Amino acid sequence: MSAGLNIDLHTHSSCSDGSLKPAELVARAAAAHIDVLALTDHDTTAGLDDARRCAAEAGIEFVAGVEISASWRAQSVHVLGLWLDPDSPQLRSALLRQAEQRAQRMRKICGRLTTMQLPGDQLLADVEAQPGVPTRTHLAQALVTRGIVRCRQDAFRKFLGRGRAAHVAAEWPAIEVVVGWIMAAGGVASLAHPARYGLSGGACRRLLTDFAAAGGGAIEVVSGGNASNHIETSAQLAVKFGFSGSVGSDFHDPQLIWNPLGRLAKLPDRVTPVWRDRRQ
Asked: What CATH number should be reported for the domain holding residue 133?
């Protein structure tokens, strides 16, 4: 990290698909001796006020963030907005549209489950009863709770994943649109976990070329669960394209012991830290 700081710029709370409330997330971050923490819920900034207040009480430097779903050549990608103003009118309006998109998709997926003789209406009600924006993780958990599958992974393998009977392709805004929202809110746009998209080397370079042209400023070089070769590849790409590098656990749930808060590899020295000119 920087001067021994423990930095985690990618976490989730129950305002999207995390299991902890914002205050609980910050308390866990404090217990993990995190110095700089970003809350980056999916397509919502609803938890930022609580997280900021609790972080101030815990002596943690807080970064207001969000993780926005976007599309690039029919590929779903995630863009982190860091150090942004959650009160930006353009961002607030955009996230309301994202929430409605998620709600419409959830209704379509549950409709498909109904045609498969599963309790789609009840599953939809289960999801809508949860706090935060509706995600497929919520639906996967509802399928587990009702005894239809054994675990969330089974829900995606059997019903919700790409190519499965209940899958509904997302229609997210183009990546340049999403980067524009983040920049309008004064934030830095960072491509989340670039190694997870399953792109070929050439496709990844084209994605980063387009991301840079749109105004993207960073990529997540170190992400929770990344192998050392993924870090090395992402570091090379950051240098090649002139991006800053970010680090983030993508923490969702304490039960996922392979992905703890703040326990991350060091950002390679040759990569400029995204926080270098942003820290207080």
From this structure: 1.10.150
